[in-house]
Amino acid sequence: MCFHKDRLVFGGTLQNPRKLWFSKHGDLFDFRESIPVLDDDAIRTDLISGGANGILWLMENANNVVAGTMGGPHTVGPHDRNAGLSGKNMNIRKHTSVGSAPVAPIEIGNLLLMLGRGRQEILELMNSYEAGGYLTPELSTLSDHILEPGVKT
């Protein structure tokens, strides 16, 4: 669960491990959708890129919601950056194949520090304009002995 631009966001339930639910803009408890779809309607979508990995954690970062999975981080944000996120203006993107452990990341400025899927590396999830997306360099490379037994939660 996280908050994003006046929306409450849920994802990764036992019955629907890849599904995301965004509340109606400005109403955190309204998850109804209308026909036709309006820009401020609630949003329901699936993370279908990158295989069948379920959502482990959600975090707001910049203009996106970042969803951590064992197969790599995904972002959900507006396709048109000049307009808000809506059911008609949404872009879901998988950035790397470096997966995460089921532990919420730590936000430091615009960076997210996450625990790798094997619980033996600390990864920096950073938005790179040069790369056109998020990168996940390993921060614990020079001190890998610190996490040798694996992080317990």
Account of the 3D structure:
It is a single chain. The chain is mainly beta. It is about 0% helix and about 35% strand. The protein has strands spanning about 1-5, 5-10, 20, 45, 55-60, 65-70, 75, 90-95, 105-110, 110-115, 120-130, 135. Strands 1-2-3-4 form a 4-stranded antiparallel beta sheet, with no helix packed on it. It has a 4-stranded antiparallel beta sheet with strand order 5-6-7-8, with no helix packed on it. It has a 4-stranded antiparallel beta sheet with strand order 9-10-11-12, with no helix packed on it. Strand 9 and strand 10 (about 110-115) form a beta hairpin. The two termini are about 20 Å apart.
Structural class: mainly beta
Let me know the average pLDDT.
86
Strand content: 25-35%
Q: Please, how many helices? A: 0
Q: Helical percent range?
A: under 10%
Strand order of the largest sheet: 1-2-3-4
Round the Cα radius of gyration to an integer and report it.
16 Å
Outline the fold blueprint:
Elements: E1 2-4, E2 7-11, E3 19-22, E4 43-46, E5 57-61, E6 64-68, E7 74-77, E8 91-94, E9 106-108, E10 111-115, E11 122-128, E12 133-135
Antiparallel strand pairs: 1-2, 2-3, 3-4, 5-6, 6-7, 7-8, 9-10, 10-11, 11-12
Give keywords.
153 residues; 4-stranded antiparallel beta sheet; 34% strand; mainly beta
Task: Please give a quick description of this structure.
With 153 residues, the protein is mostly beta strands. It has strands at residues 2-4, 7-11, 19-22, 43-46, 57-61, 64-68, 74-77, 91-94, 106-108, 111-115, 122-128, 133-135.
